[in-house]
Amino acid sequence: MDNDRILRFSPAERVAHWVHTASFFTLLLSGLIVMSHKFLFLSALFGGVQNARIIHKLAGVVFSFGTVLIFVLGDHKAFWRWLKDITTWGKVDFDFLKEFPKEFLGGHANLPEQGRFNSGEKVNSLFILIGGALLMTTGLMMWFADAMPLSIVRWAYPLHNLLALLMAAVVIAHMYLGLLHPGSKEAINGMLRGTVTRAFAKAHHAKWYREVAGEEKSK
Ligand code: HEM
Questions:
Q1: pLDDT, tens digit (0-9, with 9 covering 90-100), for 174-184
Q2: What is the pTM of this model?
């Protein structure tokens, strides 16, 4: 590894992220076909509507269980650290959230120093975690509808669709930040190569950078 780069995401974190992404988009596209006839034109991508239904279920299993297994079995320390990071909130996180809309819209925000994840990323992670769990639950209710009371299955349909569309909106904002936003373009290297420049780490995650640099010195 270049001396001017530091490790941000381990291989297991990266594989889990991209398997999650691939299964999310497979779910979104196949789900739109099942949701409304307006999207029937997408069925060619899956070789017909019946195939799209089968692929939707398989992708749901990968999305809900596969990615968690890759993450936990591949790097359980990183998994627990991520859970701890995203559920630990202090004043600095709320201060960041207040300023973040300015940064998102390309202005100059007065952002406080951040740890490994800023609070926007924590909100993203929590949304994906809770939204994903609810999507999975409502999906399983529809899948095994015969074993469920009808009144519950009736609620599962609109909830599942609403959650999927909300999640798609969050993922689009997340992709904008990871791929196009001028301030965070280096972030994508963390998810592709595993490393980011020290300059990026210092500018965006100063508290985390000091911890990592301290560990490097003491080795
Ligand atoms: C092409 C699509 C995507 C791109 C370019 C992308 C990009 C990234 C990048 C660059 C990071 C690391 C940010 C950092 O350094 O902290 C990240 C983290 C993350 N991504 Fe993605 N991502 C994509 C799709 C998705 C999807 C579909 C999901 C979930 C359904 C997702 C969930 C997450 C989560 C939970 C994190 C950790 C928290 C965060 O950093 O926001 N990503 N992504």
A1: 998 888 877 67
A2: 0.92
